[in-house]
Amino acid sequence: MTDSSMNRVWRERFEMELQRINDGISKKGGTKTYEKVVERTGRAIQKYPSIAKFYQISYIKNEKKPKEMLRVDWEIKDLSAMESGHGVYFLRSNVRTLSERVTWEYYNLIREIECTNRQLKNDLNLGPIYHQKDERSDAHLFFGLLAYWVVNTIRCQLKREGESCYWTEIVRRMGTQKLVTTKGKNPLGETIEMRQCSSPSKQAKQIYDKLNLKHSPFKKNKICRTQSP
Predict the structure, then answer these.
(1) Distance between CA 82 and CA 54 in Å, rounded?
(2) What's the CA gap between 173 and 184, in Å, rounded?
């Protein structure tokens, strides 16, 4: 077992930080000043030093506005050098009758059980239980296990497509897509609400595609609220 998966996670997070910087440059009201963008990129490099050293980062100035940044480009200097630094771990068992394949499967089973307990306790808030009535405690446990079945189904489908990240990482990626609500009043005094989803990031689109889901949960919704006299 190698730690290439860990490097892949750091690589994805580092590139997401760089993508956020580019999004801020192109977004209205975002950070566009050349010096500020360089500082923000430097903080991302300090945050992920073990993976950032393999990247070549280029700063492209805006020719029309020299004080502003046009974009930040990045590329991997040497992919082989990045992969050559991976460590190797060995599994040892006192059960001599198990084959290498069975030992590996048992090890992954233990990891999955530990992950399940961690998700139930931390991610899904299954415990501790503060309810004082049995029926409320039963309902708390029921909805907690129901939520875990949903989580486990999503992770199982993603694993079939080669995506083996934890639930916290899935939530982090999908959390980049937001619901935007805009309110205003028409000449009749009615309150108009427009709701729409923002565009998902590249990583969020990959999860949508692997789950065969649409990139937007719903289309633009328009709600008209009439004020009571």
Answers:
(1) 6
(2) 31
What HEC string does the chain produce? Answer: CECHHHHHHHHHHHHHHHHHHHHHHHCCCCCCEHHHHHHHHHHHHHHCHHHHCCEEEEEEECCCCCCEEEEEEEEECCHHHHHHCCCECCCCCCCCCCCHHHHHHHHHHHHHHHHHHHHHHHHCCCCCCCCCCHHHHHHHHHHHHHHHHHHHHHHHHHHHCCCCCCHHHHHHHHCCCCEEEEEEECCCCCEEEEEEECCCCHHHHHHHHHCCCCCCCCCCEEEEECCCC
What are 31's two structure tokens? 């950070």
For residue 108 the two structure tokens come to 């992954």
Cα angle 16-113-158, degrees, rounded to a multiple of 5: 40
* Structure tokens given for 40: 């923000």
Q: How far is residue 135's CA from residue 129's CA, in Å, rounded to a whole number?
A: 12
Per-residue pLDDT tens over the stretch 45-102: 988 888 888 888 999 988 888 888 988 998 888 767 666 655 666 778 888 888 888 8
- CA 47 to mean position of chain CA atoms: 17
The tokens for 181 are 């609500």
Q: Is 3's pLDDT higher than 70?
A: no
Instruction: Return the residue matching tokens 């889901």.
Output: 213
**What tokens were used for 2?**
């190698």
C-alpha 20/C-alpha 14 separation (Å) is: 10
